[in-house]
From TrEMBL:
Name of the protein described by the UniProt record: Short chain dehydrogenase
Keywords in alphabetical order: Oxidoreductase
InterPro entries the record matches: SDR_DHRS6-like, SDR_fam
Species for this entry: Nonomuraea guangzhouensis
KW Oxidoreductase (keyword) present: yes
Similarity annotation: Belongs to the short-chain dehydrogenases/reductases (SDR) family.
Domain of life: Bacteria
Keyword Nucleus: no
PANTHER family on file: DIHYDROANTICAPSIN 7-DEHYDROGENASE
Amino acid sequence: MKILAIGATGTIGGAVADALAARHEVVRASRRGPVRVDMADAASIDALFTQVGEVDAVVCCAASGGLTPLDAPSDTDFWNGLDGKLIGQVNLVRRALTHVRAGGSVTLTSGRFAEPIPGSSLGYLVNAGLEAFVHAAATEMPRSVRLNAVSPGWVRETLLSLGMDPAPGTPVTEVANVFMEAVEGTAHGRTLTVGTS
């Protein structure tokens, strides 16, 4: 299969692209590098598909912002997470409809926190909205194209890079395996939660 992997320079995206590349042709896209995309810019997503052409699958592992307090300095600061992670991935699905071959798939990334913490309300909103979108939009996907989300939770390597206790994190290779399951399996309209998929 020819697979477009977005966010391929990140911790999760790099591991997912590497795992997929063992069996498939992978086009790696990110904000930097030869194949570029800005998920907050719909025109950039259009340009990406013009450059890449038809694919069998799209996997989006693009990173989102961190914790955002309710009293963020401005509305723009607070709502930035909607543009890239939620609206960006919705725009990606809408544009992928004409570029993913019949029987292919689109896999998005949501997320989760172990429990609500200060600054997590926007993240909860974005992730819940994305998962609801996947569930509903799956009924509208043409040509048997499958749509799913993966909810990775904390990743061990990310916690290490932040200087935090890595114990509650899942190794990135296990996270990549769930993305592989979404691409190569038969799931449709589901959120695959790492550790329980």
